[in-house]
Specification:
Number of helices: 0
Order of helices and strands: EEEEEEEEEEE
Number of strands: 11
Radius of gyration: 13 Å
Structural class: mainly beta
Oligomer: single chain
Length: 124
């Protein structure tokens, strides 16, 4: 049974930091692109970051503030979030895909696996 379980969300003041984790099971984690995407209330899914092997990719809005990492031995994906802003408030989802997604036009159906998410709230 495939599972992606996110953790680490919470309430943080603007400028603060959080570390999100995603525990994966039930599939060959190392063979997949892994992503963090987010959804703010009333909006659509937004690409945050992706990683294949050791190279991470980031949206313009988080580049320089967030860091993605993938541990294939432990089947874990992490997202270190620094200098958080009010606009980072969202539900954050961990997702996996066999191929690289189009970060400008993806939908949930483009992922092979998808977690339930963890909420991040940034306050002023």
């Amino acid at each position: 049974q495939v599972q992606l379980v996110e953790s680490g969300g919470g309430l943080v003041q603007a400028g603060g930091s959080l570390k999100l984790s995603c525990a994966a099971s039930g599939f060959t984690f190392g063979n997949y692109w892994m992503y963090w995407v987010r959804q703010a209330p009333g909006t659509g899914l937004e690409y945050v970051s992706g990683i294949n092997s050791d190279r991470g990719y980031y949206s313009d809005s988080v580049r320089g503030r967030f860091n993605i990492s993938k541990n294939n031995a432990k089947n874990t994906l992490t997202l270190e979030m620094n200098a958080l802003r009010l606009e980072d408030t969202a539900q954050y989802f961990c997702a996996g895909a066999r191929d690289q997604i189009n970060i400008y036009s993806f939908k949930k159906k483009h992922f092979s696996y998808y977690g339930e998410g963890t909420r991040v709230t940034v306050s002023s």
